[in-house]
Each structure stands twice: as C-alpha cells, then as structure tokens.
Amino acid sequence: MMFYIPFWICAFAGAVVDARERRFPNELAGACVVAAFAGVWLDVGLSTALDHAGLAVIMYLALVLTESLWRRLRQTPGIGMGDAKALFALCTLDPMGGIVAFAAALLALALSCLITKSRSLPLLPFLVPIFAIIEVVGCTL
Question: pLDDT, tens digit, for every residue of 64-121?
C-alpha cells in the first residue's frame, strides 16, 4: 500500500489544480503516471505493470480519438485533454477501476451541471474521489 502514496498525492493535487484552474498540467499528469506504474511494479510485478500500461494506452487513445472526432464534427469541445491524461494515469494503476470511475464521474458531473445550471465544471474533482472510493472498496472486498 505504501507504494501508492506518491500516486495519491499527485492525483489529489491534480484534482485541486483542476478545480482552481480548469487544467491538469502535463508535469503533474506525468508524475501520476510514473507513480502509478512504479507502484504497480513494486506491488505486483513488472508484467502486471506493463499490462496495465498497455490497457491505459488503449483507453487513452480511444478517448483522444473520440474527442478529436467530436470536436471536428461538432465544432465544440467535449471533455478536456487533461481528463484524458487523468484517465491514462488511473488506468495505469487499475484499468477497470479507472474506467468505472470515469463513467461514474461523468454521471456525477452531468448531475452537478443540471443542479447548478452550469454549462461545464471540471471533471477531476469528481473523478479522483470516486476512483479513491473504488480502490478502497476494492481493497476491502
């Protein structure tokens, strides 16, 4: 468990930055990915870390390609690239948890936008805590 402390520090720092500035800096995203990869490697081995990284790349590319297509067809942004970087980091730590957290965070974000009558809100303040809950519940089961 101690192997993951740097990841969680980076992830929650990213959520704070996104809440304040509506962005997820590349340096912080990179630190999240490196910390996630190193944590998985030290905890369960290189093979699993590489598997997670491969799945994270697939999810990242699928999301970026979908977002690029959305922007081209709709002429308006959907999710931000910082959100795609965050998904990459989360999937590097836990691919299924990252995907589930991303879907749940999008739902929570949509409901929050409806309640507050806002056109957009930052995603990471929803995504990181939901992912943390998924990870804690997953560890206790």
Answer: 999 999 899 998 878 889 999 999 999 999 999 999 999 999 999 999 999 999 988 9
4 Cβ contact list (under 8 Å, min separation 6): 35, 36, 39, 43, 93
d(CA 51, CA 42): 14
10 Å Cβ neighbour count for 16? 12
pTM over 0.70: yes
| 8 Å CB contact between 4 and 52 | no
What is the distance between the alpha carbons of residues 99 and 71, in angstroms, rounded to a whole number?
Answer: 22
Helices (H) and strands (E) in the chain, counts: 6, 0
Per the CB < 8 A criterion, the answer to whether 131 and 97 are in contact is yes
Answer for the pair 37, 49: CB distance below 8 angstroms, yes or no: yes
| Amino acid at site 65 | L
Name the nearest CA neighbour of 32 among 96, 128, 133: 128
Q: Which residue has the tokens 């959100």?
A: 83
Q: Rounded distance, CA 134 to CA 95, Å?
A: 12
